[in-house]
Amino acid sequence: MAKIFIGVAWPYANGPIHVGGVAGCYLPPDIFARYHRMKGNEVLMVSGSDMHGTPVTVRAEEEGVSPEELAQRFHEENTAALDKLGLMPSFSLWLSTEDEAHKETAKAMFLRLYERAFLYEKEQELPFCPTCQRTLPDRYVEGTCPLCDYEDARGDQCDECGKLLDPDQLVKPRCKTCDSAPEFVTRSHFFFKLSDLEEDLKAWMANKDHWKPHVLNFSKNYLEMGLKDRPVTRDTKWGIEVPIEGHENKRIYVWFEAFMGYYSMAVEWARRSGNPDAWKDYWQNPDCRHYYFLGKDNIPFHTIFWPAVLMAHGDLQLPYDVPANAFMRFEGAQFSKSRGISLALKDILERFDADALRYYITNVMPENRDADFSWDELIAKNNNELVATYGNFVHRTLSFTHKNFGVIPPSIPPDNPDREAVEEIKRCSHDVAALLEKCEFKRGIKRAMELARFGNQYLDAQAPWNQIKEDRDKCGKTLYTAIHISRALAVIMAPYLPFSSQRLWESLGEEGDIAEVSWDEALAAPEAGRTLAEPKPLFEKLEEMKMEDRVEKEWPADMGRLDLRIGEIESVEDHPDADKLIVMHVNIGKGTRQLVAGLKQYYSKEDLAGKKIVVLCNLQPARLRGVESQGMLLAAVKDEDVSILVPEGDAAPGDEIRGTFGHGGLLSFPDFKKMKLEIAADGYAEFVGKDGGRFQLHTLTAKVRPDKAMPPGAKIE
Question: In what order do the strands lie in the sheet containing 333-334?
């Protein structure tokens, strides 16, 4: 029995986790951990939300909320999304960098490095924005990458080529907040003596031939360029305080602090388990293998910086493998929460079954090169493989057996076709295990699907629908073998497709959680006479998606400040003290709101009663001529024409307009007026972002448009 430690890259809590992150670093370790536990190995897998750093503060400022509030919101949202995908059970511990246990451990590691003379203080030139009157750490400064000419590189890293940067290396740097050209000022910060560990790192990396070629080559090239000492503190108020007297106003740099979470979570897991020293079995045990799963933009942090910190700390286990994936892109662009290019996991899981998404992502996983996300391919993989191959084999096996026998029929001495089936199960189990051991998940699931294809071919060749008419015993033997294949598939597919594997396991009359079943159960023969459950299809066929139903890009932060919902007007009355105003009571799904609107000269009360509208639910209440209005309906306005926005398609009171969440609480009317909403060329309503990006207003089932034709560019008020 081996011990396996799995560290999963900490996702920034500055937005919803996107499908690119799932493909890059969240689904692979889940598959890996599930497999190793089924093999009987002891696995400690940890991670959590990275709640510190400028990615969080930048978005918090855009939304007008505190970093803590924003980070906690996305921590909870992302935890729920990962759980829905089936990932959370694999984590031994999943917390956040705001957890006190992590803070204390990170401070202790910082002090240890300081005491061992691996940290020192020196002056540094930093960008300062004369307009915003503050220094610009990391993502507060942008410019052109000096290596690849990418125009939106940041002050800490270029997302396009992966090069780590300092702000003074950027060409034409600019303040992210106001676009001003920064000045450079001198500040004192702590630096990590990375250069002192260069030769040690080269010696350690010399025998890493089991690493992926792109990971090893990138890391060796980075080392060959020579290592420079790197700053590990920042002038910011958000993060973990520097635990050295006189420096309490500084914070530990997020890149330096976050990967300490791998160790801090292990220590905290041990404390919570009731055995405070249990972490040592994973961190001070030379036989324990450490695996780190991440995207390629994080490679140097895990193959150079984190190992260097561990070396400087002393007596802690170094990484065995860093199976970093390349990028999964969307229409050629890299997924990035901060850039607004994101297919949010939570949104996709509202439309697709978790196992269907897991299957597709694994099949196109960017293990060695960038991949592209495709809605059409997702649907095709589900329909042509999960449904037509795997699901079809299992369902016709169980349906025919249930109808004609009701139980698993008895086995009789096998003939050649059956022996070949048993051998194929053995080969498949062995091959998939070997591939999973090497973190080759894509090849592994393709090999597993070959067993399902073999099962279909076996059924077609044996034709039990004919055998039942001539030789019931022979038919029973065929079905017994087909059930053996089905049972093996449930086990072999369990790391990949946990939900459908559990359903199949139960359909076979088995009990318990398949995640706790031994991997060798794939080889075990079924128990004759076991009652079969009423079979149901494992997978559902997906219909081709309409273009308007396809999730496209993550909505901008300022759009998230709105809380727009569908409302249904229940009653309309004249305002008691105003000729042009009406008073409406509107059902918004979670209660009824009273709205006051100046619509009397445009709509009759009869026209409005029963109408579905779009309501801004988090507008600050206001009294209009003595009557309180608890929100505002939206309408398109052009000159003297006014047209109420309505949903086109099925929509119910309370349905949310996608991309609006009410982040930041109540919205003032002046703040709403700063936002730009208008009618697009196609006649539908759109939100226009600060950068000119356009985002169509729609619920999950309905787009939004004015109830009367309005010209493009008509303002929405």
Answer: 333-334, 328-330, 371-373
Q: Which has the closest alpha carbon to 27: 96, 94, 86, 95?
A: 86
Model confidence pLDDT, tens digit, residues 328-374 = 876 544 555 444 445 788 888 988 999 999 999 999 999 998 888 88
Per the domain annotation, does 245 fall within a domain? no
Same domain, residue pair 327 and 192: no
| Structural domain count, the chain | 4
User: What is the value of pTM for the model shown?
Assistant: 0.77
C-alpha to C-alpha distance for 656 and 650, rounded to whole angstroms: 13
Residue 185 in tokens: 């000022």
Q: What is the domain range of residue 62?
A: 3-110+250-345
What's at 505, amino acid-wise? W
Question: What span, in angstroms and rounded, lies between the C-alpha atoms of 649 and 568?
Answer: 14
- Residue 100's nearest CA partner among 89, 110, 108 is 108
CATH of the domain at 514: 1.10.730.10
Distances (CA, A) of 66 to 14, 76, 114, 617: 12, 16, 31, 22
Inter-residue contact 553 to 342 (CB < 8 Å):
yes
Cα distances (angstroms) measured from residue 326 to each of 85, 295, 323, 545, 689: 21, 6, 10, 27, 30
**Beta carbons within 8 Å of 160's beta carbon, 6+ residues apart:** 145, 148, 150, 153, 334
Ranges of the chain with pLDDT below 70: 162, 330-342, 413-415, 545-557, 663-665, 691
Q: What percent of the chain has pLDDT over 70?
A: 95
Q: Are residues 393 and 286 in the same domain?
A: no
Residue 687's domain is classified under what CATH number?
2.40.50.140
| 680 within a domain of the structure (yes/no) | yes
- Segment 77-116, tens digit of pLDDT: 999 999 999 999 999 999 999 999 999 999 999 999 999 9
Q: Is the dihedral of CA 620, 623, 627, 632 positive or negative?
A: negative
